[in-house]
Amino acid sequence: FTPKRLAGRKVVITAGPTFEAIDPVRGITNSSSGKMGYAIATACVRAGAEVVLVSGPVMLPAPLGVRRVSVSSALQMRDAVFAALPGADVFIGVAAVADYRPVQAAEHKIKKSGASISIDLTPNPDILAEVAGGPNAPFCVGFAAESRDLDGYAEGKRRSKRLPLLVGNLVADGLGGDDNTVILYDDAGKHPLPRAAKPVIAERIVEHLASLLPAGAGQ
Ligand code: C5P
């Protein structure tokens, strides 16, 4: 790993799940430990970048040298990302953002009765697609955790979200654990990485993205 590959670069990263409130004590969330996103943040700091980590609720300490902005919902995550974005060279979306949120959270705790109930859900914005499709978009990296047909879904997402780099993994290989098996997808094709601990995978991913990064001011 060439040290300081990201010196002078600003990187914004999302990590962890989002939590979409149903009422004051309940909500919809995704299962995400935040370990991969936090490992990527650490690897970016080690490579010399200025790092803003926009994090959903996780049980992890903020990595040294990272500015962490803690959020709960997808809408809060989007606001925090766009607030951090000016001047960013790279955006890495690692968060497991909830696809839907309740149309309106109940003000008070919903009481149970014998009747069945339903919750109206509305789609959340796709933060990564909005950043990648916006004006002056930074170099955008996405993640795709799939339970099957990884190549098909990963390439489809890379194209539809307009990402130069996407990191794919099978859910069974990485979710919640300390190790992961990932494949990198870019314009040149697919690059499988050997199974390794998440901090090792993170360094490989950062090394790869640094090699694809267009030369910027001060480089
Ligand atoms: O489409 P899918 O959710 O599988 O795409 C995953 C990628 O998109 C991840 O990089 C994730 O962080 C990002 N994403 C996002 N906002 C969403 C959904 C996904 O930034 N609402």
TrEMBL record:
CC cofactor: Mg(2+); FMN
Transmembrane domains' residue ranges? none
Please tell me where CTP binds in this chain: 99, 109, 125-128, 143, 157, 161
Note describing how the cofactor binds: Binds 1 FMN per subunit.
Reactions that this protein is recorded to catalyse: N-[(R)-4-phosphopantothenoyl]-L-cysteine + H(+) = (R)-4'-phosphopantetheine + CO2; (R)-4'-phosphopantothenate + L-cysteine + CTP = N-[(R)-4-phosphopantothenoyl]-L-cysteine + CMP + diphosphate + H(+)
| Stretches assigned to the DNA/pantothenate metabolism flavoprotein C-terminal domain | 6-211
Q: Write the record's keywords in alphabetical order, separated by commas.
A: Decarboxylase, Flavoprotein, FMN, Ligase, Lyase, Magnesium, Metal-binding, Multifunctional enzyme
Q: In which pathway does it act?
A: Cofactor biosynthesis; coenzyme A biosynthesis; CoA from (R)-pantothenate: step 2/5; Cofactor biosynthesis; coenzyme A biosynthesis; CoA from (R)-pantothenate: step 3/5
Its annotated function is as follows: Catalyzes two steps in the biosynthesis of coenzyme A. In the first step cysteine is conjugated to 4'-phosphopantothenate to form 4-phosphopantothenoylcysteine, in the latter compound is decarboxylated to form 4'-phosphopantotheine.
Q: What is this protein called?
A: Coenzyme A biosynthesis bifunctional protein CoaBC
Species this chain originates from = Parazoarcus communis SWub3 = DSM 12120
Q: Which residues of the full protein are shown?
A: 181 to 399 of 402
